[in-house]
Design brief:
- The radius of gyration is 27 Å and the shape is globular.
- By secondary structure, the chain is mainly beta.
- It has two domains: 278 residues, Pectate Lyase C-like (3 Solenoid); 67 residues, no CATH class.
- A ten-stranded parallel β-sheet has the order 1-2-5-8-11-14-17-20-23-26, covered by helices on one side. Strands 3-6-9-12-15-18-21-24-27-28 form a ten-stranded parallel β-sheet, with no helix packed on it.
- It contains one helix and 30 strands.
Length: 391
Amino acid sequence: MATVTVRQAGGADYTSIKSAVEDVARLDGDIINILDEATYTENNIQISNTNLTIQHTASELGRPKIDADGTFRIFDFTTTAKRCTFIGLEMSLDGGQDAFFQRGNLFHISGCFLHGGPRLSDVIINNTTGTPSTIKQSTIFFDGTGYPSQDRIQASNGLEIENCLITSSVSDSALLYGYSGATVYPTASFSTFIKRGGSGSPVILTNWGMVVNCIVSGSGRGIQAFGANHSYNLVDVSGDSFRVYNSSTPEAAGTGDIEATPTFVDGTAAGSTPDIAANFALAEGSRGIDEGRAFNSITVDITGTLRPQNGSYDIGAFEFISQDPTWTDGDGTQTYQRKFGSNSFEIHRTANTLITRRFAFGTENRQAPYYVSIAGPATIRQRSGSYKAET
């Protein structure tokens, strides 16, 4: 097993991801570490070994961008038996290519941002044994230029999608398309799916094995899962919210499913930059907050924020964190005194307000905390000295 480093300048082993992968990374389990956040104009990077990892070693600071040119896909898995892990990368297609991956059947995607392509892979993901393929804590903006009828992600077996924001501007294709006869059902959980465009007939999530704690919003119909395997989802679509598996018959909501409009921070936001994603977090007061359930031992959201907040799970890719202080009667961390002493005399009418109170989620006593017994700064009252000396 080998570990190779890539950086465009500064003495790294390689200045090209393609050369590092194709010239060096030939053994199972090899690792390609990308050290910078530069743009790599590359395509048709051929993966010929198994369990290759391509990762940004400082992905919390940004992402290196792989920007394909020409008509080639970014990665060619050479055969469907190859597996690759992608961590902390940005991948961009200009819309002329038909997929990000060629023969990409087995993979793990984490902390990535993909945009511009019409679909993830040109093959159906079909992993019936071993570890399922995964897409976690990632954002994908699909653009159907040149391939408007292609379903964005197709799977028959072994794919898990968690904590993702996945959108599409194409009206006549599904975001997720599953196939009948699956033995290892694909799942989608704690994710936000948005389909823009006309009211095309495909269901946004079509024949998908299990859909839990997801927001499904946009034009068309909502969820068509295997049987009644959908629960605790927030669905806001122009057609039927739920459909019977492999049928056009409307179906009733599942356990905890909600048919309502989510309130995003900015639901009109569009673009191909990573900062757009945060606009699709739930705004305060939105349906979906505290209305999810625990699933698959997931403890973080798309940003790494711990789930749940406030004791209850939120639906969608983002866990809501209140930014507004909430009044509580509990003592803060500051000390307090009663004006007339701690054990002698006490005015019961104001006993509760004589305690320094605090706002929850605030690191400091900022707005409401106060000493009830203090009339105000001595300089304003034209007094001097300590308030303790005043009566």
